[in-house]
Specification:
By secondary structure, this protein is α+β, with helices and mostly antiparallel strands. The protein is built from eight helices and 17 strands. It binds 1,6-di-O-phosphono-beta-D-fructofuranose and magnesium ion (2 copies). Belongs to the FBPase class 1 family.
């Protein structure tokens, strides 16, 4: 039974008792959590708050923005820009980096986020979320900050997590010593630790992939899914179940809760595009959480966290979840 302690106390213990995080990282994470709480309230209001529907604009990736994409982005920026912990931020919804204005104190951290993941699920009242990743500015103490400073491998992350706005609002976090989950207690207005040392089973009978793209997949992915679909009578000798929420946060949350494998692979429709998901603010934070819970995350060829990004909005093929299944598909890519 996990002790019912608040996120604030959990982070203070990580700082003072375990000596794992410095105080400015602790404070930064508290601000991110506060912003997520505020996004959660906006999501909950739904049609009553006038937050549903399209914003009639496009982001840098040419995707139509929803009102909530923009609201969540603004909430995260406004909450974080004046705290003194950050040098700059980057977001799915902004083309370039957002440098903390010099009227505010400057910090040493870089915050990246997908402010609203699963945008296509907003109006249909299905779980959505916010994904975040924290890096350290490479040359601490040096003046200024550039986009180049953000281009670090996922293995350099100092904190990562997501907040899922579903039946419950749950914040899931790692600072490199396992994964913890905090459920928002709306009466108290605080996140309470409800799960510690989250572990993903090595084996699973549940896969998550958008099956409508099947005819476009590369042979290793097609082989893996064909074998799962063949069930008991096939080479795997067991029946598989399938889930696809179309919100990465929700699919990853299920995998952290009960195991499974998630794939958003490269496909041949746009051969030059490595995948759909974004490396720096979707795959890296989720990949680290999965690894911290005992799972594996690859792009089919290499560990996601080892990929050296060349661009802020770089895309990547993603295979993550239960160790033995991810290793199996990754192995199929090598043959
Ligand atoms: O609609 P598709 O192609 O199945 O894509 C679903 C995927 O797209 C995403 O929604 C992309 O995230 P955004 O909503 O932040 O653009 C992932 O969360 C999800 O896994
Ligand atoms: Mg997303
Ligand atoms: Mg998004």
């Amino acid at each position: 039974m996990t002790a019912k302690i608040s996120l604030t106390r959990y982070l203070v213990e990580k700082q003072r008792v375990d000596n794992l995080i410095p105080s400015d990282l602790r404070l930064l994470l508290e601000v991110v959590a506060r912003a997520c709480k505020s996004i959660s309230h906006a999501v909950n209001k739904g049609a009553l708050g006038g937050v549903l529907g399209t914003a009639h604009s496009e982001n840098v990736q040419g995707e139509v923005q929803k009102k909530l994409d923009i609201i969540a982005n603004e909430v995260l920026i406004e909450a974080n820009e004046w705290g003194g912990h950050l040098a700059a931020m980057a977001s799915e919804e902004m083309e370039g980096i957002y440098v903390v204005p010099n009227r505010y104190p400057q910090g040493e951290y870089l915050l990246l986020f997908d402010p609203l993941d699963g945008s296509s699920n907003i109006e249909v009242n299905v779980s959505i979320g916010t994904i975040f990743s924290v890096l350290k500015k490479p040359e601490a103490g040096s003046p200024g900050v550039s986009e180049q400073d953000f281009l670090q491998c996922g293995s350099k992350q100092v904190a990562a997590g997501y907040c899922i706005y579903g039946a419950q609002t749950t914040l899931v976090l790692t600072v490199g010593d396992g994964v913890a989950m905090f459920t928002l207690d709306r009466e108290q207005g605080s996140f309470i630790l409800t799960e510690e040392d989250v572990r993903i089973p090595d084996d699973t009978k549940e896969f998550a992939i958008n099956m409508s793209n099947m005819r476009h997949w590369a042979p290793p992915v097609k082989r893996y899914i064909d074998e799962c679909l063949a069930g008991k009578e096939g080479p795997r000798g067991k029946d598989f179940n399938m889930r696809w929420v179309a919100s990465m946060v929700a699919d990853v949350h299920r995998i952290l809760t009960r195991g499974g494998i998630f794939l958003y692979p490269w496909d041949q429709r746009e051969p030059d595009k490595p995948g759909k998901l974004r490396l720096m603010y979707e795959a890296n934070p989720m990949g680290w959480l999965i690894e911290q819970a005992g799972g594996v995350a690859t792009n089919g060829r290499e560990r996601i966290l080892d990929i050296q990004p060349a661009r802020l909005h770089e895309r990547v093929s993603v295979i993550l979840g239960s160790k033995n299944e991810v290793e199996r598909v990754t192995g199929y890519h090598a043959t």
